[in-house]
Design brief:
Layout lengths: L2 E2 L2 H8 L5 E4 L1 H13 L4 E5 L6 H9 L4 E4 L2 H10 L4 E4 L6 H9 L5 E4 L2 H10 L7 E5 L7 E3 L9 H14 L2 E5 L4 E3 L3 H17 L5 E3 L16 H13 L8 E4 L3 H4 L3 E11 L2 E4 L8 H5 L6 E4 L9 E7 L13 E4 L7 E4 L20 E5 L25
Parallel strand pairs: 1-19, 2-19, 3-4, 3-12, 4-5, 5-6, 6-7, 7-9, 9-11, 11-12, 14-16
Antiparallel strand pairs: 2-13, 8-10, 13-14, 13-18, 15-18, 16-17
The protein binds pyridoxal-5'-phosphate.
Pathway: Amine and polyamine biosynthesis; putrescine biosynthesis via L-ornithine pathway; putrescine from L-ornithine: step 1/1
Catalytic activity: L-ornithine + H(+) = putrescine + CO2
Cofactor: pyridoxal 5'-phosphate
């Protein structure tokens, strides 16, 4: 992978034609370190947040060796790349063949279910294996999540108790899990969920070996900082103490966004400036899906293509590259005045659900990846040998 000091050097030296992922491996080192050292829950990285192999390799190097996979393809990717990885197949609805392959070909032993039907699928396709870890996913409230996920998955309290009792008869290890939604801004969501789950365990009258508190841990964007990650860890750990589980029960979590959001930014080229509108080479069908569809406020800065000094600020409409008229930013964006063709916009903290959501619609979506050494974006993890930049001083040049 090519390496440059900063995105400004990329612009100066290669004037890239396709969007460039600016990869900051030390941001992954920092997030992996936090999850390993400052939180007692074992992190299973949710692969869907960013399946880029350079990101996976940085996580592995940072000591994250457990993975939350949701599909056959993710299971195969992780097993092929990391033969020693611990893989949990955590999609509540799985294809039968995918279950069988995961167990027999890829050595997966951890499976989730939220119905009796899915439990039976897992048991049948693994031949009623004696070495299964079965996790029962419970529906919980998504209070305070930017992207709530309630409704689609998770067993009701009554159903969960019944599934737990049945699963206990077959499972080597039995767990419970939940997912409070993505970018969950209230640590108390975990306290509520864990108290609910504890009551379910008591009513089921089973022993539980594992409590998996899911994903949803936040990252930091341009619209204000979430509570410190330490407050999430403290809330989860205190709630775990009060749960009705075995003395030596394990605590797991499934972070996606929080582990990788800071790992990559995207450097986009302005292809045209027309009457206060900028046409750039990534948009709603690309890595900026969330910026358009979820009105996510990614931090951003402009970089002049010709090295001139940028000053003043101006509100722009911003359009993505495809022919679809909905491929545009929902609000005007403030950027330095006088931007035109050949200038660049860098969107920061796009490492979660950016690359992952990108499509090839209309022939766009090709990108390059390069490594950079700067640290210009707000961070939840402090610095690792780089400058610390707080939200208030986000650079726009
Ligand atoms: C998406 C997902 C995650 C990761 O969510 P983040 O908000 O990125 O942390 C974890 N667990 C499950 C079951 C998921 O679907």
């Amino acid at each position: 992978m090519h390496s440059y000091a900063t995105p400004t050097h990329i612009v100066r030296e290669i004037q890239p034609d396709v969007p460039v992922w600016c990869f900051r491996p030390e941001r992954v080192t920092a997030s992996a370190k936090w999850f390993r050292e400052s939180f007692s829950a074992e992190p299973f990285y949710a692969v869907k947040a960013n399946p880029g192999v350079h990101v996976l390799d940085a996580l592995w190097a940072g000591g994250v060796h457990s993975f939350d996979c949701a599909s056959d393809t993710e299971v195969e990717l992780i097993r092929t790349r990391f033969p020693e990885a611990r893989i949990a197949f955590l999609h509540p609805v799985k294809n039968r063949r995918a279950i069988a392959r995961a167990y027999k070909e890829f050595g997966v032993r951890i499976f989730v279910t939220d119905t009796m039907e899915e439990l039976n699928k897992i048991l049948e396709e693994t031949g009623y294996a004696k070495d299964l870890t079965i996790i029962v996913r419970v529906a919980v409230s998504c209070d305070g999540a930017a992207l709530p996920l309630a409704g689609k998955f998770g067993a009701s309290a009554d159903d969960a108790a019944e599934i737990l009792r049945e699963a206990r008869r077959y499972a080597d290890e039995l767990g419970v899990s939940f997912h409070v939604g993505s970018q969950a801004l209230k640590p108390t969501a975990w306290a509520t969920a864990m108290a609910d789950v504890s009551r379910i365990i008591i009513s089921a009258a089973v022993t539980v070996d594992i409590v998996d508190v899911g994903g949803g841990f936040p990252s930091v964007y341009a619209d204000g900082a979430p509570p410190a990650l330490e407050s999430y860890a403290a809330m989860v750990e205190a709630s775990f103490e009060n749960m009705y589980v075995l003395e030596n029960a394990d605590l797991w979590c499934e972070p996606g966004r929080a582990l990788v959001a800071e790992s990559e930014s995207l450097l986009c080229r302005i292809e045209l400036s027309k009457n206060g509108a900028l046409y750039i080479n990534d948009g709603s069908y690309g890595a900026l899906y969330d910026a358009v569809h979820e009105q996510w406020k990614f931090p951003k800065r402009a970089i002049a293509g010709d090295g001139r000094k940028l000053h003043g600020m101006e509100a722009y409409r911003v359009y993505g590259p495809t022919c679809d008229s909905t491929d545009k930013f929902p609000d005007e964006i403030m950027l330095p005045a006088g931007l035109s063709e050949g200038d660049y916009i860098e969107f920061g903290n796009l490492g979660a659900y950016g690359r992952a959501m990108s499509s090839r619609f209309n022939g766009f979506g090709e990108t390059e990846v390069v490594e950079v050494q700067d640290a210009p974006w707000p961070s939840l993890y402090g610095s690792v040998g780089a400058e610390v930049v707080s939200i208030g001083s986000m650079a726009t040049r």
